């Protein structure tokens, strides 16, 4: 548990023990709301097992924005950092094992990260990776067809195709479930030709 974070942020063992003791373990069923859109986020989460989706309401429709899978930390960054209402909701797709940490504990950890130039650079790299994922997803809506977005998702993150229900994938791709079914049938037909 937390190994990939420990690898990225090599703190002394006693500091890791203190940070890890700040996490609260949670086992929750599928379809559990961890944070509702427009609420303020006071927690960050580490996902040990399962899948969580970030989504927002667009005129009564759920629009899936991102998927989080095992060994990932997530929070509503703008809400968590600035105390603003969250722009997204977080909901479990599968039964999940999560670890929740409160904002003051994260702030203590980040103070130590910021004091160390190497750790600060590693933290900024991790933050930019997430921002880059958002940018790629955004630009794919401008330049790619829905079929190309599905093909890219299948190549880059096949575990999502295997584990996430089709209606969430369709929402993530910006299409209806019916349209997604047509795309999948067309791809299958092209492979068989």
Please give a structural write-up.
There is one protein chain. The protein is of the alpha+beta class. The chain is built from 9 helices and 8 strands. It has helices spanning 3-8, 13-21, 77-82, 103-115, 117-143, 146-156, 158-163, 166-173, 177-192; strands at 24-28, 33-35, 43-49, 52-58, 61-68, 72-74, 89-92, 96-102. The protein has a 4-stranded antiparallel beta sheet. Strands 2-7-4-5 form a 4-stranded antiparallel beta sheet. β4 (52-58) and β5 (61-68) form a beta hairpin.
Shape: elongated
Mean pLDDT: 89
Could you give the order of strands across the largest sheet? 1-8-3-6
Rounded radius of gyration (Å): 18 Å
- Quick one: biggest sheet? 4 strands, antiparallel
- The class by helix and strand makeup works out as alpha+beta
User: N-to-C SSE series?
Assistant: HHEEEEEEHEEHHHHHH
Total of helices: 9
Helix share, percent: 40-55%
Strand content: 15-25%
Distance between the termini: 46 Å
Return residue spans where pLDDT drops below 50 for at least 5 consecutive residues.
none
SS elements, strand count: 8
């Amino acid at each position: 548990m937390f190994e990939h974070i420990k690898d990225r942020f090599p703190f002394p063992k006693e500091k890791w023990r203190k940070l890890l003791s700040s996490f609260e373990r949670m086992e929750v069923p599928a379809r559990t709301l961890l944070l509702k859109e427009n609420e303020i986020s006071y927690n960050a989460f580490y996902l040990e097992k399962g899948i969580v989706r970030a989504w927002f309401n667009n005129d009564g429709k759920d629009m899936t924005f991102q998927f989080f899978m095992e060994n990932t930390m997530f929070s509503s960054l703008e809400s968590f950092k600035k105390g603003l209402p969250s722009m997204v909701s977080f909901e479990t797709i599968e039964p999940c094992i999560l670890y929740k940490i409160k904002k003051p504990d994260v702030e203590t950890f980040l103070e130590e990260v910021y004091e160390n130039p190497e750790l600060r650079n590693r933290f900024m790299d991790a933050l930019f990776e997430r921002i880059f994922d958002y940018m790629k997803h955004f630009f794919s809506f401008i330049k790619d067809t829905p079929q190309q977005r599905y093909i890219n998702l299948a190549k880059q993150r096949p575990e999502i195709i295997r584990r996430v229900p089709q209606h969430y994938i369709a929402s993530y791709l910006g299409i209806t479930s019916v349209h997604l079914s047509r795309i999948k049938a067309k791809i299958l037909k092209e492979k068989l030709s």
